Structure formats: structure tokens, C-alpha cells
Amino acid sequence: MTARTRTPTKPASAGPASRPAAAASLEPKPTPAVRNGSAPLSGGSTAATPSSPIFKKTMSELQRAGTAQNRKVYARHGVKGTFFGVSFATLRTIAKKIKVDHDLARELWATGNHDARMLATMVAEPAALTASELDQWVRQVDNYVLADAFSTLVARSPQATSRIDRWTRSKREFERRCGFGIISAALKEGVSIFPALLDAAINQIEREIHSSANRAREGMNHALIAIGSFRDDFYDRALNTASRIGKVEIDHGETGCKDFDAVECITKARKGGRKSTTRKSRSRTG
Q: Is the pLDDT reported for residue 50 higher than 70?
């Protein structure tokens, strides 16, 4: 991984385009390892001990793909625990070969290894994710890189609306980031979101952004930018809210990342003719 330059209205990669997506709309409806390359893998969930042949092959491929330089970069971006240091580009290449394998995704997540969990978000089947499984997984997210990839996965699942409602109210830093990250990811990909959900999100952002934890605060700012950038019907509302909020400062640690000014980003998106989701929403099939 090279030093990451983040675009707030473009959440972490959702994986290969060939993966089927499950959610056509977020409007209300019934809800149908190695530490730095050396230490043993650690368990991360209650799933059975991973042992399938494809799991073993995939983990070996991930370990070979990791580099010392990428491990340094990941560490600067807050990645903890076990990881090999596999670049985003390589993860996407591996995911493209696997396509969709939800059993494998569960095995990968269970390792606790960051690279394996990133890959899990790329090969999981959104429609197969249960609310309880997602609530278990989100509690194990401990850095913003994984949070954004995980949010993109959840945005495609039938659980998206309920998880936005639940996780945005969480006091946990990365759980809250994931809740607002779902909004950003869904809007970016043209998934329709019920206006009342966006209205509640904007109210909460204005009320709580400055008192929220560092990476949750950043996710809330990104969500406000996404709402103003991708929804014509919320452009004025988001812009005015951003003006009242003012500067949102984020501690980026030892990285070259910069804060994003919501007013500037929303205004620039409108001037640049960014595609809105209010006229035409992209339909999805499971």
C-alpha cells in the first residue's frame, strides 16, 4: 500500500465490479494471521476454526503479497494487530479471482488478520449477512481503513438501513464511523436512501460532530459531504449545515492526509457537475 490519499465522498473500494450487490434501495423495508508478518494468527470471531483448502491457499497468497513498506504505511494509518501489508491493488486482484465466496469471507474474518478482513469485505455476499453477524463484525473493526471497506459492503446488504440507524447512535468510534460510512458508500454508488434517514443524519452530524471521537468525526464529515454532493434535494441543507459546523479538525497521525472542508467540497461537487442520485437510482439485483 502506498501512502493513502483519501477522497471523502469516495469510500474505500467495494471490491471487484463482478460481485453481485443486494440492495436496490435503503428506503424502509423488511429486513429479509501474522503480526507485521511474523506472529501467529489470532482468532477474531466465534466462527469455526478456518481450515478449508481455499482458505489456506488464500492466506498463503496474502502472506506472500505483504511487504515491509506496506506494513509501515498501514501502521501509520492506525492498523493494529495482525497484518501482512498487502496493497489495495493486490487485494482487488485476489478478490477478482475469487469473486463471491461467503463461507471464505467468514473464515477470513475469523482470523483477525487485517488483510484477510479487508479481503473478506470484497468477497462476502451482501445478501447473506445477518444483522447479528454484522453487529459482531463491526465491534471488531479497529481502524478507519477497515471501517470504510466494511461500510461499503454493508451498504449493499438488506441490513443497511437498520445498521445505519443502530451504528450512527453508537458511542464506539469505529462503529459510529461505519454507520455514517454506509451513507457515504450508498450515495456514491447510486443507492436510494429514504429522505427521513438523511434528515436525521444531518441533524445528528450538526449536533454531535465536534463531540464525537476522532475517526467517527471524520466519517460524519464525509457523510455530510456525500449527502450535499450526491443529493440535489439536500444540497442547500447540507451546505448550510456545513457552514454552521465550521472547520472539522481530524488527527491524522503520522500521515500526509489533510482535513476536508465540507463547504468547499460540496460547492466544488456541484460546480463539477457531480451526478446526483435524486433523479435516477441505480438498481441492483441479488
A: no
pLDDT digits (tens, 9 = 90+) for 106-128: 999 999 999 999 999 999 999 99
In a domain, 285, yes or no: no
Q: Is residue 1 part of a domain?
A: no
C-alpha cell at 117: 478482513
Q: List, in sequence order, every residue forming a beta bridge with 82; answer none if it has no partner.
A: 113
Query: Which CATH number covers residue 229?
Result: 1.25.10
* Amino acid in the structure at residue 81: G
pLDDT > 70: percent of the chain: 78
Residue 19 lies inside a defined structural domain of this protein: no
d(CA 214, CA 216): 6
Cα–chain center distance at 266: 20
Predicted pLDDT of residue 181: 98
Cα separation, 182 vs 271, in Å, equals: 25
C-alpha radius of gyration, the chain, whole number? 18
Residues pairing with 113 in the sheet = 82
Q: What is the largest CA-CA distance in the chain?
A: 55
Q: What is the pLDDT of residues 211-232, one digit of tens each?
A: 999 999 999 999 999 999 999 9
- Decide: 50 and 107 in contact? Cβ < 8 Å: yes
- Tally of domains in the chain: 1
- CA-wise closest residue to 17 among 180, 144, 152: 152
Half-sphere exposure for 162 (CA within 13 Å, toward CB): 13
Burial class (CB in 10 A: 0-12, 13-18, 19+), 140: middle
pLDDT level of residue 192 (50, 70, 90 thresholds): confident
